[in-house]
Amino acid sequence: MFVKNVFLKLKNDYKKQKFPYFSTFLLASGVGVYFLGKPKEGESKRIIDYVKRSINKSKRFLWIEKEIPTLPNQIEKKPVILFDIDNFLSKTIFSFYSFDYILKKRQFNDVFLFHLAHMYELVAISQSNKYIGDAFIRQIDPYGCFAYKIFLEDKTKFCLKNLNRPLENTVFISTKNNEFNKEFEKNILYLNPWNGKEDKKLLSLLDFFTNLFFVSSKDWRNTLFSYQNKDFFNEYSKIQRKLFDQKHFFRLQTDDLFQNKIKQINDERIGDFYKAKIFMDQKIQMENQKSGFLSKFNWLVKKIVF
Length: 306
What we know:
two-stranded antiparallel sheet, five-stranded parallel β-sheet
């Protein structure tokens, strides 16, 4: 009751002052900071210290599982791609309209995951706690393309033993330095963090991974390592053009011809996804209806029994 009164008082005060409303999330955060950050005798009462104490207590509560998970043995042998969705497939943006944080999906995210999941075993490895991270990943991956989701406070502690996969055909996508264990140094594909604006870079990256999947090389690490300290998308666009020129050696090469071919490939991949999306959405709808029916059935049984 006390918390509810605090919410109402804050909301009414801000209405009178004609400030933007605080979202429920921010109100709850403020109350949480107040209670979790309460100082003990002799501790500082500064606001920043309230925040620090509340964060430390929250971490101890949320990061209950300290054991580093190990991926189970593969049933079907597939190459592996591991990455954190944050600043790669998604970006958390503050909205002044709702006065809250929103999760923004990168353009062609669904197309990218859909096609990769047919070739690779996808593993999401997040620094968020399990409860928040899992909710974010479900928004980014509604069709269940990720085979596994790993939540670690420190991603560098995830090592070769935990990976339980051969390194020859394993790729880590990273958007910052020292993100993963040094054992995977030659397996990392470095990309610039996504800036939140619409782009088509995921389609280029999909093309790279498609070509990588079908190459004859048994070890991809030299290929991945060759992109280090370079702008991946600039370098790969040069390779795309080189491959195109080799394939069409006896034809007059023009930029328009090359760009049209890239567009054709991308359009086909996007089209394939949207054809499959119809059936995937129907399946999700049926599962939701079934789940809703079972919930109502369980409620009815409880009413009858009790």
